[in-house]
Design goal:
- The chain has about 575 residues and is mainly alpha-helical.
- Helix content is about 60%, strand content about 5%.
- It contains 28 helices and eight strands.
- Strand 6 and strand 7 form a beta hairpin.
Length: about 575
């Protein structure tokens, strides 16, 4: 399933890597790694264009969003604002602060204005964290709820690779989810400007009417559905005492797969509405998390489990979790009935006889819930659904043997010549992504002569031509162009780009791989002519990182020449 955060992070990664290369020479007192969260949430919450920064964006991100997501408030309080000053300056000086943005001076002034408020907010977060830690010292080691995943972390980590279905299949399943359709119908009944009460949202007559309209069994089902409609953003407040249906609600099920999956994900945490609701609040609390407890047990059992076994195991877990667990279990009658009913209604499980199994949509959802709990899980796209860019992105993060196995499985489902074309086409999508390009060249190179047509076509793509010319020459292809000096220099710049992303030590090592200082100086005297997307940042990084002052001077000369060609 498309994940907005992961997609935005991938989109921003090349830009942030360039900033990291730019920062040492231009903003040596700042920590470029600290801008990531602010830049990410600016892209997610404020602007579709990462280069568009308007007045008020910084206030919204730093004072409203960052306090919710920051992992280390101490570090953020000390360095995030200076790092953002550097980042905005970087955008401006490199022409990435797009038309429509506030001026750099205005943005920096806004930072100055809110800096004290931001630091105070971070200090509040630090105090709250310290308070929570003190409270934790007095708590027992018992789980917070039946649904905690942490006790199963080792079992989850040991699971075989979980294969996720493609978005098109998941979206088709999400469109058929009964609970979302009912939530849409409830929102339609709510209409525009419906008044709600303070103690009871709806009158008794309105409750009865809503239950009849949507076709529910009772009022309790109505309130769970009401909460789901809010989660899905089908219903929203539009005044102090009124709520209205969202204008887009009637269009459900949406046409666009991404919109469908985004909506389904908004309601994912509704799994908690499957927990039994009892007349006694203490008994209800004793069974809180039961739905998640069932999901994690089905997951670690390979995706299916006997309901009889689940009932016995969960009854025991409820007893261990809370002294009232046995009473709550007995009072609920069949505690798993509402759990399974809700999960079935949300498309996450299917029941066959005494077996409950995760659907592909349910597997996707549980993987996200596990990830939200910061527990490692090996989940990857299904081989038959894996695109070339999926394969390249995944392989870059895997050990060599695993990456080879993924490639072999992926290759087994397509003609090798077609695979070569797909991989090189994926590598050409983003000229700035050197890592994907090198990964693609390596995989296609392993295909041998069957890849010749794909390599020949790749000669027309500037970012791939150096690789294509090199491999065609190695394959002794007739009339293949010999790699030029510019091709060799492009390959070097790609190597430097990747090593720079791994850290200063790796980058310095890659410089030493070229040879002694005089050899690097000779290279710098000509490499500035190569139209590589990271050329200027890399030349700055060479000047900053290489210990030889003469190399530093040569890098500055090369940088001046490169900038003069703009």
């Amino acid at each position: 399933m498309t994940d907005r955060i992961e997609a935005a992070a991938a989109e921003l990664r090349p830009l942030l890597q360039e900033f990291i290369l730019w920062a040492p020479a231009n903003a040596p007192g700042s920590d470029p790694d600290l801008v990531g969260p602010a830049v990410l949430w600016h892209r997610l919450d404020a602007r579709d264009d990462a280069g568009l920064w308007k007045a008020g964006d910084l206030r919204t991100i730093l004072l409203e969003r960052i306090p919710q997501v920051v992992e280390d408030p101490d570090e953020a309080a000390d360095g995030m604002v200076p790092a953002l000053r550097s980042y905005l300056t970087f955008l401006s000086e490199t022409g990435r602060l797009v038309k429509g943005s506030a001026s750099l001076d205005a943005l920096l002034a806004e930072l100055d204005e809110i800096e004290d408020d931001f630091v105070e907010t971070m200090e509040d977060a630090i105090a709250e964290r310290d308070w929570d830690e003190e409270e934790d010292e007095f708590e027992d080691d018992e789980d917070e709820s039946l649904g905690d995943f942490e006790p199963f972390a080792d079992e989850i980590a040991d699971l075989p690779t979980i294969r996720l279905r493609p978005d098109s299949e998941l979206a088709a399943a999400a469109r058929a989810v009964p609970l979302i359709t009912q939530a849409r119908d409830l929102a339609g009944w709510v209409g525009s400007g419906r008044k709600v009460g303070e103690e009871t949202l709806l009158t008794e007559e309105e409750v009865k009417e809503a239950v009849r309209t949507v076709g529910l069994s009772d009022a309790q089902a109505l309130w769970n559905l009401w909460n789901l409609a809010i989660d899905l953003e089908f219903i929203a407040p539009d005044g102090d005492d009124t709520v209205s249906v969202d204008a887009d609600t009637a269009a459900w099920p949406f046409e666009d797969d991404e919109d469908v999956l985004d909506a389904w994900m908004l309601g994912l945490h509704s799994v908690d509405y499957g927990d039994p609701e009892l007349d006694d609040d203490d008994l209800t609390l004793a069974l809180s998390g039961l739905t998640r407890a069932l999901l994690v047990r089905v997951l670690i059992n390979g995706g299916s489990r006997s309901i009889t076994e689940l009932r016995e195991e969960l009854a025991e877990a409820a007893t261990e979790y809370d002294d009232l667990g046995p009473d709550a279990w007995a009072a609920a009658g069949d505690p798993l009935a509402p759990v399974i009913a809700w999960l079935t209604g949300y498309g996450m499980v299917a029941v066959e006889g005494d077996e409950v199994r995760l659907t592909p949509l349910g597997t996707e959802g549980v993987v996200h819930l596990v990830d939200d709990a910061d527990i490692d899980i090996d989940a990857r796209p299904a081989i038959d659904a894996m695109t070339a860019i999926d394969l390249l992105s995944l392989s870059a993060d895997l050990p060599e043997e695993e990456a080879d196995a993924e490639f072999a499985a992926w290759l087994g489902l397509r003609d090798p010549a077609r695979a070569a074309t797909e991989l090189l086409a994926a590598a050409a999508e983003d000229e700035a992504d050197a890592l994907v390009r090198v990964q693609a060249a390596s995989l296609v190179g392993a295909l041998g002569e069957v890849a010749v047509p794909a390599w020949t076509e790749a000669l027309e793509e500037p970012s791939l031509r150096p690789y294509a010319a090199t491999h065609l020459t190695q394959l002794d292809v007739e009339d293949a162009p010999e790699p030029t000096q510019a091709d060799t220099h492009w390959l070097i710049l790609d190597m430097w780009t990747i090593s720079a992303g791994l850290g200063r030590a790796e980058f310095v090592s890659s410089l030493h791989d070229i040879g002694p200082a005089q050899q690097i100086i000779g290279l710098l005297d000509v490499i500035w002519k190569v139209p590589h997307p990271h050329l200027e940042e890399l030349l700055e990084a060479v000047g900053d990182a290489h210990p030889d002052k003469q190399v530093g001077k040569a890098a500055k000369r090369a940088l001046f020449k490169a900038r003069s060609r703009r």
